[in-house]
Amino acid sequence: MKYYNITVNGVAYSVSVEETAAGAAPVAAPAAPVAAPAAPAAAPKAAAPAGAAGAVAVKAPMPGNILDVKVAAGASVKAGDVLVILEAMKMENEIVAPQDGTVASVNVNKGDTVNSGDVLVSMN
């Protein structure tokens, strides 16, 4: 049995989770709300993406459609250079390079639909 404190909409709950055999779904049993909400834990830092050492993944910040791809693999870019134009909610958003480097791969094409968090471009 594992015990967790979970905060939902500002209300803290003490929850116990029973471990079962492989393949069986665990069952959570909520207890009474805890008097004071627990302090939120610090978010872990994102790990480096798989691939070449030092690679940087430029991800889609929101779901949308790719209107244009401004770079190709092997291109040198400076921090702030436009890599991709992403249309979301009828607005064109410029996705820019977070740092100076070289484009290792372009993972999208003009007209593609992407979800939030999809890797658009990877850089070295």
TrEMBL record:
Residues 47-124 form the Lipoyl-binding domain. It comes from the Bacteria. Keywords: Biotin. Coiled coil: none annotated. The keyword Transport does not apply. Signal peptide: none annotated. PANTHER family: OXALOACETATE DECARBOXYLASE ALPHA CHAIN. This is Acetyl-CoA carboxylase biotin carboxyl carrier protein subunit. It comes from Faecalibacterium prausnitzii. The lineage of its organism: Bacteria, Bacillati, Bacillota, Clostridia, Eubacteriales.
